Amino acid sequence: MSLRVKVLLPYVAFVIVAVALFQLVWEPSHTRSVLQERLALQEDRLRIVASGLLPDVLAQDLAKIHESLAGVAADHPRWEAVVLTDAEGRQLFPLEETPRDEALLWVEHIERQGERPRFSLRLGLDGDALRAEILSNLRRLELAILALLGGMALLALIGHEVWVRRPLERLSGVAARIADGDYDAALPADARDELGAFIRAFDRMRHSLRERETKLHETSQRLDSILNGLKDGIATIDDQGRILAANRAISDLFGYPAEELEGKNIRILMPEPYHSEHDDYLAAYRRTGEAKVIGIGREVHGRRRDGSVFPLELTVTEFTLGSKHYFTGLLRDITDRLEAGRKLHELLGMQTAILDGTSAAIFATDHNGIIKSANAAAERITGHSAPTLIGDKSLTEFFDPEEVARRAAALGGELERMVRAGFEVFSARAATGGTDEHEWTFIPYGAAPFAAAMTVTALRDGDEVQGFVAMVTDISERRKMDRMKSEFISMVSHELRTPLTSIRGSLGLIAGGAAGELPPKAGQLVGIAAKNSERLVRLINDILDVEKIEAGKMDFELEPLELDGLVDAAVAANQGYAEQYKVRLRVDNQAPGMRLEGDKDRLLQVFANLLSNACKFSPQGEEVTIRLEREGDWAQVSVEDRGEGVPEAFRDRIFQKFAQADSSDTRQKGGTGLGLSISRAIIQQLGGRIDFTSAPGAGTRFHFRLPLIQTAAPSPALANVVAEGASILICEDDADVASLLRMYLSEAGYQADVALTVREARARLAEREYGAMTLDLMLPDEDGLSFLRQLREDPRMAQMPVIVVSAKAEQGRGAVAGEALHVLDWLQKPIDNERLTGLLDQLFTHAGGDPENLPRILHVEDNADIREVVSAVLEGKAILDCAGDLAQARHRLAAAPVDLVLLDAGLPDGSGLDLLPELNKLRPPVSVVIFSAQQVPREVAKQVSGAMIKSSTTNEVLRDEVLNALGRRLARGYAGRASETTTIADH
User: Fold this and answer.
1) DSSP 373-428
2) How would you class 548 by CB atoms within 10 Å of its CB: exposed for 0-12, middle for 13-18, buried for 19 or more?
């Protein structure tokens, strides 16, 4: 059946149903309705007629009634009968009795007077005629409806042709073109009905299909690009083994063009026995479903077009489309991987051999310290085999728990957080990106503990810590060697420094006239010997300093220092060296008053190295400039010469040990090449930096920077006087009186510092130790007696000799009567110079008294030459008793009291330092000054009055240090009698 008939049939059915419904339902109903309307109309007319007949009826004028009703009947041909009846039922019109006719339709009107009827007028209508008329009208209406329905059907047919069939035919044509891939065909999209909506939906579907096909095409191209860009080969086969698709890598791997592979059996790519067995394998799989390769990666071999065979990794997957099975194979050439694996295996074997061959134990652990791997040395030092260690033992089991706990506490302070006493002690630093290096006591299984150094680093994957590697080295032998080296250095130091001290001291005494006046030639020879002994001393000191630097044991005695005075001392110490080379030393102080914290002796050593170099390399008659500058919070010190400059080739290694610009045997300049290396180490240890600039023919400038300190400085109105002898602090607010006291003390051979206020005095006392102090009682910022009481509460100042010099000296003495303030004397102003200097002379040297009243010194020294030199240096200043070993020293101390012990650390029967506990128990206390061939530890130096190294101590420094210590000792001796004794002369 055609589409046209299918569309037209509903319209025909509609017409038939409409006519049937009209005939069955609407026509009878409408006929009754029209009939009732006609009867109602006739009733209305009858009522009008009746109202017109009323007067005649009332008058009983029958003639007029008959005439009127006859006219009415004539005018209305459809009235078949007109009957008028009075109230008694008498028929007034027509006069004869009208028979009842069943075909007539009767309409009656009754005229009433109140409730009583007056007359009745009835009409008899021709019902058949009336019905025929109504039916005739209905037939005409039916024909009109049928015509209308036919027209509608015709219009529907035309509309179907125009609006449905033709667009559908066009839509069918467009769909056919779309099926052929043409998405640009035009659609009739101007309709606004359902078909238009359908067409527009179809058009959207067309655009969607085009977009999807475009995307599918792009995806296909990308997929082809990806597949063809892969290094791995991908091939798809059917269940018969035929190749359906293969990417470019397949062609590259096997040497076949893509078009040659398509449709071929996959076995052409396989060597024997796979070539012959492949089809049987597929058949068995189709029959049983048992897979041997599908879903399982395995290594196979492939055969290229040229017949060569190579290793492959094959992975096969299966997929179905409908009822058909297909397989995709991923093939990867693993020739390089196998070669890399072989090399890796060799490398791992080599690494294993190296790790197992090294003497260091290497452990790999997890985050909790559980051992995951260990080399042969680790098995050896732990006493466990690898199976016992790995996965079972924690690294912490091999360390002393108490030692670990102490390290945890120390490490927690350093890292500013809590560190648990477990494996975290080893891993805390390594976990934050650092390396933990520490020395431990390692406790192996079934063996004695030994000293070990362990380095721990983190194993990382990116930023994530995966575990830790610990390398443990047995350092017991190294420690033994260090001890042997230390003992050797100690022995060399003692055996070289001791005779050199004797030589230098003796030559110094001879040159100073201690043995009488020398002939000029002898004096010249002594000078040469003294100069070369000094050179030899510097060489030995430099070599020993280098050893200390390398061992990290160079000690520093830090104290606040006036840079001006330090430079002046350096210039004075090196003036003779400059004169030897006929060079002048000049100080250019552009920033006076700078103060820094440093080690005075070490900084003088730096100055000596720089100045000696500058003098050596300066032409005769030239000038070496020491320039002091301030750069913010830093002091900049430079030493400039006018020499030829540093050769370009030598500049990179100028600070290296034993570096020489001319290292040949015939070089003109002396030196070991150690001075600059030592100087750099000293400056760096003090927090500074040293460098140089040089230009050919324009000289060299060495410069170093050190941080300044901000402390209260003395008043600039009074400069300190540097003099030989003991150091005295003058606490006096009157500048003129202070100048006068300073002049008196300077003339008497004392070094005097001035403090104008209590605040300045405290700063001075904090910076250095003084042999005595003069104190005015009237000071601007604090009462002198109050200041004195505070000093006596400080253990360091409790026994310092104090001489009150004040206008109110007598009042002050009365005010403190009974207090143990230990004042040596109360001097009233104006100042009695002779009394003041006499007090100090008696305090420090007992000059002018009986020799028996001189302080007694026990010199503990095994070298007789050193004893002779020291005796000559201190002649007239003290009485010396000597002991050559510990036993003699104990015997001398038991036999007679002494005021001071001058102690050598290296003695034949032990260390002189072993005497310190015994000396500290003596009452009254005994001052101790260590005079040894090597530097003593800092904690030991703090327990004694002074510590000096023989080879770097001149006769003058030795004398001053001993006299200062004696002054403090004698002051403590007299302090106990302060309430009874006013002067030392009474002692």
Assistant:
1) EE-HHHHHHHT--HHHHTTT-BGGGGB-HHHHHHHHHHHHHHHTS---SSTHHHHH
2) middle
Token look-up 């002198």 returns 784
What confidence tens digit (pLDDT) does each residue in 612-665 have?
888 888 888 889 999 999 988 899 999 998 888 887 766 766 776 555 555 443
Name the 3-class secondary structure at 245: strand
* 153-171: b (≥16 Cβ within 10 Å) or e: beebeeebeebbbebbeeb
Q: Give the whole-angstrom CA distance, residue 156 versus residue 633.
A: 109
- Is 625 in contact with 615 (CB distance < 8 Å)? no
Rg (CA), the chain: 66
DSSP line for 917-945: HHHHT-SS--EEEEEESSPPPHHHHTTSS
Distance CA 454, CA 457 (A): 10
Q: Name 598's bridge partners.
A: 559
For 447, the token pair is 């063996």
The amino acid sitting at 724 is E
Residue type, 578: A
- Between 186-195, 552-561, 564-573, 804-813, the lowest mean confidence (pLDDT) is in 186-195
* 79-83, 219-223, 401-405, 491-495 — most confident range: 401-405
Total residue length of the chain: 987
> β-strand 802-806 against 823-828: which pairing, if any?
parallel
DSSP 3-state of 878:
coil
Q: What angle do CA 644, 648, 649 make, to 5 degrees?
A: 125
Quick one: pLDDT band at residue 537, thresholds 50, 70, 90? confident
Provide the pLDDT confidence category of residue 38 given band limits of 50, 70 and 90.
confident
Residue 149 predicted with pLDDT over 90: no
| Residue 730 CB contacts under 8 Å (≥ 6 apart), including other chains | 738, 741, 742, 745, 752, 753, 754, 755, 773, 774
Q: The tokens of 199 are what?
A: 């067409």
Residues 6+ apart with CB under 8 A from 113: none
CA dihedral 715, 718, 719, 724 (to 10 degrees): -120
Share of the chain above pLDDT 90, in %: 9
Shortest CA distance to 381 belongs to which of 400, 404, 358, 350?
Answer: 358
Long-range pairs of 485-491 with CB within 8 A, sequence gap ≥ 24: 489/544, 489/547, 489/934, 490/906, 490/934
CA–CA distance, 435 with 433 (Å, rounded to integer): 7
HEC states along 952-982?
HCCHHHHHHHHHHHHHHHHHHHHHCCCCCCC
What residues have CB less than 8 Å from 356, skipping those under 6 apart? Answer: 375, 376, 377
- Contact predicate 232/332, CB 8 Å: yes
State the virtual CA torsion across 486, 491, 492, 493 in degrees, nearest 10.
Answer: 80
Positive or negative, the Cα torsion across 4, 10, 15, 20?
positive
Instruction: Measure the CA–CA gap between 588 and 512, rounded to whole angstroms.
Output: 32
Contact 250, 233 (CB under 8 A): yes
Beta pairing partners, 452: 440, 474
Question: What is the C-alpha to C-alpha distance for residues 471 and 362, in angstroms, rounded to an integer?
Answer: 5
Closest by CA position to 820, among listed 987, 986, 925, 972: 972
CA distance 221 to 224: 5
